[in-house]
Amino acid sequence: MRVFRYQESQKEEWNCFVKSSRNATFLFERDFMDYHKDRFIDCSLFVLSEKGKLLGLFPATIDTAKKHVVSHGGLTYGGLLLRHDVGTSQVMEMLAAIVSFYQEMKMSFLYIKPIPHIYHLCPAEEELYVLFRIGAQLSARGVSSTVDLGVPLTFSTLRKRKYKAAQSSDLKINIKGDILIFWELLTETLNKTHGVAPVHSYEEISRLAESFPEEIQCVTVTDFENKIVAGTLLFLTPRVAHAQYIAASGRGKELGALDFLFINLLSSFQYRYQHDLTPRYFDFGISTENQGHYLNEGLIFQKEGFGAHATLYDEYVVNLSSNESSFSRSPKAQ
């Protein structure tokens, strides 16, 4: 195996592979990955066979002070992006080459956040097996809540009761909601509830939405005065509609606006899925904090009320200084 560090001049080649990969999403296209390149040092890799065939990509960032490599430091998930025809033995060789490359850079730890299986166009969990083989340790586990749109939808009694009440409140859903107004609601809600700001600034998310108009969708709920009372920002991939952000005003909560929004959204996505027009899963996002050691039970209860069940977002750490992470072969890194 041969490994090369990504250069900006290779953007087109990188993006072309991402679009053909069996487990990548648009988050790995350079226009998305690089939106915060001022905050991260990119150290992504191309992985090729000895004959020069591109087998995979490894999106990654490095912290030179800590000597840490993270795949990926600015994204929800990372890990190897694979060709459709790459097998388990090849993935073992690929990860060996990647480990060797970062060891030569004198990095100490490699953190990998494998892409959850719901995003895969077809099974692509070879990396998980290899991580087990090289002694990688589970360092974080987030619990997300996912609805399978391929089976009948089920809603809890509470969610159905709030939805029924909301139906009499003259609420309307806007599938092309105003991101600026939603962002103001989101920012106010997060600050008031948790004392934090959204991960993305409005300038960042608006630029991303402009770059990915088919993949980033803002859906809002307005009341009879045409005022936004709730909404969500969706990241749409071939297999998953992911709720990246969710917010509701105080009035929106009183009206059951989120119940109105998500029951309608889930029903709409399921109808479209049945007609081959939509992703298979709807993912509400994680309800955990502190590397998974804290579970927000109230939040996950609400999500599970829409018929969602657990999908894990894991992170593994490889000690690059330990013999336990060594492979039986010595791959060539360049």
Describe this entry's structure for a reader.
The chain is 32% helix and 27% strand. The chain is α+β, with helices and mostly antiparallel strands. α3 crosses α4 (126-133) and α5 packs across α9. The strands form 3 sheets. An 11-stranded mixed β-sheet has the order 2-5-6-8-17-9-14-13-12-11-10. Strands 1-3-4-7 form a 4-stranded antiparallel β-sheet, with helices on both faces. It has a two-stranded antiparallel sheet with strand order 15-16. The chain folds into 2 domains: 2-141 and 314-325, Aminopeptidase; 150-279, Gcn5-related N-acetyltransferase (GNAT) (Aminopeptidase, 3-Layer(aba) Sandwich), CATH 3.40.630. The protein has helices at 11-20, 30-33, 88-104, 126-133, 157-166, 179-194, 202-211, 250-255, 257-274, 297-304; strands spanning 2-5, 41-42, 45-48, 54-58, 61-63, 68-71, 81-82, 109-112, 137-148, 172-174, 216-222, 228-236, 240-248, 281-286, 288-289, 294-295, 309-319.
